[in-house]
Design goal:
The chain has two domains: 151 residues, 3-Layer(aba) Sandwich (Alpha/beta knot); 71 residues, tRNA(m1g37)methyltransferase, domain 2 (Trp Operon Repressor, Chain A). Helix 4 packs across helix 6. The strands form three sheets. Strands 2-1-6-5-7 form a five-stranded parallel β-sheet. It has 237 residues and is of the alpha/beta class. It contains ten helices and nine strands. The structure holds S-adenosylmethionine. InterPro entries: Alpha/beta_knot_MTases, tRNA_m1G_MeTrfase_C_sf, tRNA_m1G_MeTrfase_TrmD, tRNA_m1G_MTases_N, tRNA_MeTrfase_TRMD/TRM10. It is found in: Cytoplasm. Its EC number is 2.1.1.228. It is an enzyme of class 2 (transferase).
């Protein structure tokens, strides 16, 4: 996969790719990243990238020309780029979208600043707008990295499939709680079943915890899930 990130602040984006999972995946050639400074495409000597909104009101808007020039430069050698604008006004980004995006070959992220992009950029380049949650960040870099992080860990070879299989959302449920050594911490013991070595009992306990947690914290997930007979039985008890 090729990832391109267009931003006014490359220095915010760059460090993410130099550590841990993304750095190892880049080393293994699983994906590559190109970070492009939109300001390099500004048209005036002051390298201006924002302007006042038509119609008045607070804040500034990213000027369309530098964004458009940067986008065209970045995409000129790409075949099927998916262009993403993280935006609080976008559709909610979720795990199934992360799965879909992990199958793409070329992703381009456009990080917003100020009040955001000129709408004509979004319409002209058929850009997908995703929101990472119902709150407003001051800029798009962190949101773009949230999406990148959720996507790249789903690409084959980045992390073990075993870890992905039982994660929150992969089965439509939140994940069960985890425990590690010591067996007693601050006077609180690990649940007995996890020390039993009985795999079937552990599986059932984990499923029950997943369902209880989902019911408590995210009942909306249960409404959208096709439940197995076992899951229905746990819910009814
Ligand atoms: N005026 C915009 C609105 O009310 O919808 C908010 C602009 S915000 C201050 C600046 C930039 O941060 C946005 O262009 C977007 O790229 C990013 N951003 C802020 N909140 C976000 C969210 N919840 N999801 C994705 N991106 C977000």
């Amino acid at each position: 996969m090729k990832i391109n990130i267009l931003t006014l602040f490359p220095e915010i984006v760059r460090p993410y790719f130099t550590n841990s999972i993304p750095a190892k995946a880049i080393e293994k050639d699983i994906f590559s990243v190109d970070i492009v400074n939109i300001r390099d495409f500004a048209l005036d000597k002051h390298r201006t990238c924002d302007d006042e909104p038509y119609g008045g009101g607070a804040g500034m808007v990213l000027k369309p020309e530098p964004v458009s020039l940067a986008l065209e430069k970045v995409t000129e050698n790409l075949k099927t780029p998916v262009i993403i604008y993280p935006s609080p006004a976008g559709i909610p980004f979720d795990q199934s979208t992360a799965y879909e995006l992990s199958k793409e070959k070329e992703l381009v992220f456009l990080c917003g600043r100020y009040e955001g992009l000129d709408q004509r950029i979004i319409d002209y380049y058929d850009i997908k707008e995703y929101s990472i949650g119902d709150y407003v960040l001051s800029a798009g870099e962190l949101a773009a990295l949230v999406i990148v992080d959720a996507v790249i860990r789903l690409i084959d070879g980045v992390i073990t499939n075993e870890s992905l299989r039982e994660e929150s959302f992969s089965s439509g449920l939140l994940e069960y709680p985890h425990y590690t050594r010591p067996a007693v911490f601050k006077g609180v013991p690990v649940p007995d079943v996890l020390l039993s070595g009985h795999h079937e009992n552990i599986r059932q306990w984990r499923l029950r915890k997943s369902i209880e947690r989902t019911l408590d914290r995210r009942p909306d997930l249960l409404h959208n899930k096709a439940l197995s007979e076992e899951e229905k039985a746990i819910l009814e008890n």
